[in-house]
Prior knowledge:
The complex is a heterodimer of chains A (152) and B (527). With 152 residues, chain A is of the alpha+beta class. Chain A has seven helices and four strands.
Amino acid sequence: MSLDYDNQQVDFIIAAQQNRPGALLPILxxxxxxxxxxxxxSVAQIASALNLSRAEVHGVITFYHHFRTTPPARHTxxxxxxxxxxxxxxxxxxEHAGKKLAGRKQGDCELQPxxxxxxxxxSPAVMIxxxxxxxxxxxxxxxxxxxxxxxx
Amino acid sequence: xxVRIFVPRDSAALALGADAVAQAILAEAERRKLDITLVRNGxxxxxxxxxxxxxxxxxxxxxxxxVSPGHVTALFDANFHQGGKHALGLGLTExxxxxxxxxxxxxxxxxxxxxxxxxxxxxxEGFRGLRKALAMQAADIVQQVTDSGLxxxxxxxxxxxxxWKTVLNTTAMQKYIVCNADEGDSGTFSDRMLMEGDPFxxxxxxxxxxxxxxxxxxxxxxxxxxxHSISVLNEAIGIARKAGYLGANILNxxxxxxxxxxxxxxxxxxxxxxxxxxxxxGKRGIVRAKPPLPAIAGLFGKPTVINNVIxxxxxxxxxxxxxxxxxxxxxxxxxxTLPFQLAGNIKQGGLIEKAFGVTLRxxxxxxxxxxxxxxxxxxxxVGGPLGAYLPESQWDTPLDYEAYAALWAVLGHGxxxxxxxxxxxxxxxxxxxxxxxxxxxxxxxxxxIGATRGVEVMDKIIAGQGGPGQIELLRDLCDTMLNGSMCAxxxxxxxxxxxxxxxxPQDFGIKGSGRVKPDTATGGQHA
Lengths: 152, 527
């Protein structure tokens, strides 16, 4: 889910958090939870509120894999690519998923690698949004996609 | 009387459909007008059996698993809610060999209690350690932790008591307790299972640490990949505060301790303690130079105890039962227990808390039942993505910090990832370099540049290009990373790379050199 940038809402988020020690990460999380991403227009607003330079805020946003500056697809699909999942065929699953998703309409699904979801004994693991799935075979992956609906 | 039925809320169980099973049980019980109480417990750690449903009977808890929603009607038909026989029945949970052979100290309650029930927690020895600590002098608490022999369970194995003593003896207006719950190592999930299955034990451990060093504020830095852990912890902190176990006046002692969860943002290097401090301060997770030690100048420049989840969660049992009780488990200088996490290509993966001294072979075969694929096991990576790959000749070495250091390997956070004979160790070595290149914080050159060059060299080796000189180049590069990096990220990436090269040279297209460790290894400098 993503929303358009709304500077009043960003102000509201900043005001709620800015007096906490080390407030930048909590603010960025709240903004991304609200808008689905960190709207680039919010950087100056955050920097000014926290008495930081825009470069510092930009540096933090781009350092962390979790933060993004573009609106997400409707569904974010993360496939774990770390060793435990590799040992159970994660690489083949990534290839299968890539082919499968190529046929879907643009902006519908976004495939991302992730390094460990903590489901290492029941691998390969996949997270769709915040929903976890384990022992995901290519067949199970297809079924999960079906459940997302809206093919085409 | 209402029948208690347990369906885990642990992420692993949820990923295998536990919520749907729980709903099906509630619906079916309602249809049959049966009086049941559904408890969402933590996981017992037998992850191949999840969702593992348990029923309280007069003889004890009876287990069924793995249960899917489609089984629920048949389970009720078989009177499973009274412990009736069914094909999924496993008997009394406590009698299952996988559990019975374990020594659960830190995980004593996980899977047994309702993670968010203070009554359950108190009934199972909860807060006994804290009550004892409240009646003790700070220095005596530190002494008891020192005497227990507890070492940092995050991977570095530094004696916890020594760290605490440094913070205690440093004068400051403000001190902090920081719990490192950035469990980024592949193959590890014990922090996650503990936070989701018994959050109060972590809260209790951190509160005891605060009393021991004079800290009043604590932070738990949890990875963003663990949304369930974050919500359970937040709920548990709220409950504990309301009941007076946290806040301005802990159990009317006049002592104060506040606790807050902070969400990480997907950076592996933030598991390194100084990078984590930077992240908590709202900055990029760039590793700091040491000294000063965080114990002297840590979070916001103040003295800070930084411990891993399992280290802090082991403190309550040490306080409740005494230093000797804990110290008597284990071997050599590795005292107590370690929750091993058996993962990857393994038939019966899960959490196995055992005293130090158990061997990989016992864990993989006696507990794990061999590979999931049924093919022979080829290599085992112990200690996360920066841990060495061990060949079969090393599987009988007791798992203890010093014995592993002698093998030029590490125990790390206790993660064990099994690979069968289809694994290509050259590709896994390339992956180790690639992972370091992706996750390097960029501060020091050996790590930032070395990992990228390492991927290029591995690509040539895998493609059979460049001749034997490439192997020497790889060794030379690893030598630079090993000895020149600022922290374990670059400093330990050579462990998986060189152990793969030394033990599985055929995968690199060369004959064995007989080397088992790099010429310049100083042994455990980063560990």
